[in-house]
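Human: I would love a firmer grasp of how sequence relates to backbone shape in proteins. Could you go through the record with me and say what the backbone is doing? Here is the record:
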Amino acid sequence: MMKYQVKCASRFRNMFHDDAFCRMNNHAFCISGEHRRIKVVKAVKKLFSGDRTFYMKVLAMALPIALQSLVTIGVNMLDTIMVGRLGEEALSASSLANQFINIYHIFCMGIGMGASVLVSRYWGMKTKEEDRASEALKKTICIMTRLTLSLALLFAVVTLVIPGTVMKMYTTEGSIISLGMIYFRYSVVTYFFLGMSLVCTIVLRSVGQVRMPLYVSIGAFGVNFVANYALIFGKLGMPRLGIAGAALGTLIARVFEAGIICGYLFFIDKAIGFRLKHLFMRTGDLVGEYIRISIPVLVSDGILAIGNNTVVMVIGHLGVAFVAANAVTSVTQQMSNVLTQGVSQAGAIVTGQTLGEGGREKALNQGYAFLGLGLCLGLFAAAVIRLISGPVIHAYEMSPETVEIAGQLMDAIGMIMIFQSANSIMTKGVLRGGGDTKVLMLADNIFLWLLSIPLGIAAGFALKLPAFWIYTCLKIDQVAKAVWCVFRLRGGKWIKKISTGRN
């Protein structure tokens, strides 16, 4: 028995020296390597659609949306520059008052983007079930409009009744509070026009009408400039109203914008067919569906806004140099992100319309193509940030410490932007367009509150890491969400069935 075991062991060892066995073994390894290479190539190919029409459609939607975002950034910068000439107190007062108005803006974005999920889906359904889809679309706009106007009324009452209390939430300086109260006095009606122009713009985008809102925004920019110039400084025969003139100038621009956009949607547009009489239609059968799909978007955006403010508060406690460096880099980050925002909204619209037409498999393939777009845009943004970071930083007069921190922040932003671009297009675009709003609400806030904020606080205050790592920790949720989105996309569970509200 012992001799037999020795003989078998000898034969087994000799197998490894046999040329035939080696060739077979190497061939097996080659097949395995080739198989892995094929899988990688297939995975990469999925990220790039061969359908040129798809990319043209996305580009036709994304570019006007991105340009409109640039116009909005320009309006905000214009207001800041003009009011800044009145002095630091006026600038601080208008800035803090607008912080409260921005809360309303964020809620309206949540209402509008939530409604967009339903509107784009119903628009896609019109080819198969025109009557049911058209009625459901009108009911969605009706519910959205009622919510927006109700919210505007609430904010207007608060601004009118307790403007001082609102200002005291942001500052204890008496002079700034007084000027802020003046700004609020002339901003009470603004909520209604701001909210309606915003949500109606989103509805028009959801059915593919993206150019008209862009043209109106450019016109509103011109109106805002002329009104501010005349009313703030007393030019063109107008009285000099100072900070009140800034509020009135913004109101006039909002009236102009809302008047054209809402007037077009309610009186001229024939594709959607929504009219003022539909504001009084019965919507009870669709309210549940609207709440299921849209309210998580509203809650998610609202809580994320609070979370982002918390991130700003953490940065605010890291020292004057860190705050100044972050202020310098934030504008660069906003500018480099506008195209991603445009593609994100285009992703939600295209996905919703495709699913409405019944193209589940097509929507899945488009989802991978959008992921590829996100990665490419992120790499492009990172490269641009890398190129312009030096000139941007040295355009400001700052201490050597602040310059050093700003450079580190630019490096961190460039790296984070790759992941942020990919996950923004997926979470705010494709997955949201598929109706996966409840899961997205949980994911957004879990990654932010349980990962980014605790790690950022630990990096900044406990570990006292360099600025690069502090900022990376504060934005690590962008990396985590990008990875999570890939698994969510592959599973296909993000595609939700949406009802038209009646059997």
In short: The CA atoms of residues 100 and 158 lie 11 Å apart.
